[in-house]
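re: ur question from yesterday

yeah so i grabbed the chain u mentioned. its 287 aa long if i counted rite. heres the sequnce exactly as i have it in my notes:
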Amino acid sequence: MSNQEHQNALVAVVVPTKDSAATLEDCLVSIRRQTIPCTLVVVDNGSRDSTLSIARAFADLVLESGPERSAQRNAGARSTSESLIGFIDSDMVLDPRVVEGALDAFHRGAATVVVPEVTIGNGFWARVSAYERSFYVNNEVIEAPRFFTRACFEDVGGFDEAMTGAEDWDLGLRTLDAGPRLRTTAVISHNEGNVHYFEICRKKGYYAKGVALFMRKHGTQALLPLAARSWLRSPRALANPLGVGLVILKLGQGAAMAIALTRLSFGHPLALASRSNLKRKNRQDAP
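ran it thru and got these structure tokens back, copy pasting raw so excuse formatting
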């Protein structure tokens, strides 16, 4: 972005990263190709691959912060002064009009904006994940906002830095009364990469601590609508290979979450793969 465009930007987009070289360039290029220029901030958490060099090639600002993505997002938001802030993960690719759609929603009075997502990736379990996500389109409970007015974001204190795994839902609940929540028609493609059954289940277990914190903050009742997935009410939708795969996937993820929560309740550390280890494995498996 030129200096003049940077000065005129109304929107900042923050991308937290850690060992994201396999997907980061596609993500940042898609942000640079938005129809509305925005300030692009990448916040890295000690990457050991080429993530930082990729970030420096595309971002207006590259920071280093941790220990997890909630703190990274908050650090990125603090580094900018734009009145609108968006948060995009490093394995996402944006349609060219995502930022334009978010800005239009804010002009129509929105305090927060949801961007619909589709899942892409390789292999059967990626197709199962995409099938699952297809049930959540226009689901106001499942879909959390990704763009916020700065006033709204700062009024609630940003992301809860102790929480990883349910922080998007947590911030969505805390900003619900800030003003209208609108959505864009442009979408985000979430690249799951090479999805393996046991890895995707272990990833769910990794987020157990964040889910436990979410329940302590908002009560078990707040989690019930998130657990009441629409595909559970559509038996016919499960009568196909992807539907059967979805049931098997949710059973595995549920078991991983239950084991992790049980270990937490007894004060044991979680013997689970870290996010960076999972990303490295996906990258090694990539063709």
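noticed a couple things. The beta strands are 11-17, 39-44, 61-64, 84-87, 92-94, 112-114, 117-122, 147-149, 181-183, 188-194. also Residues 270-287 have pLDDT under 50 and may be disordered.
anyway ttyl
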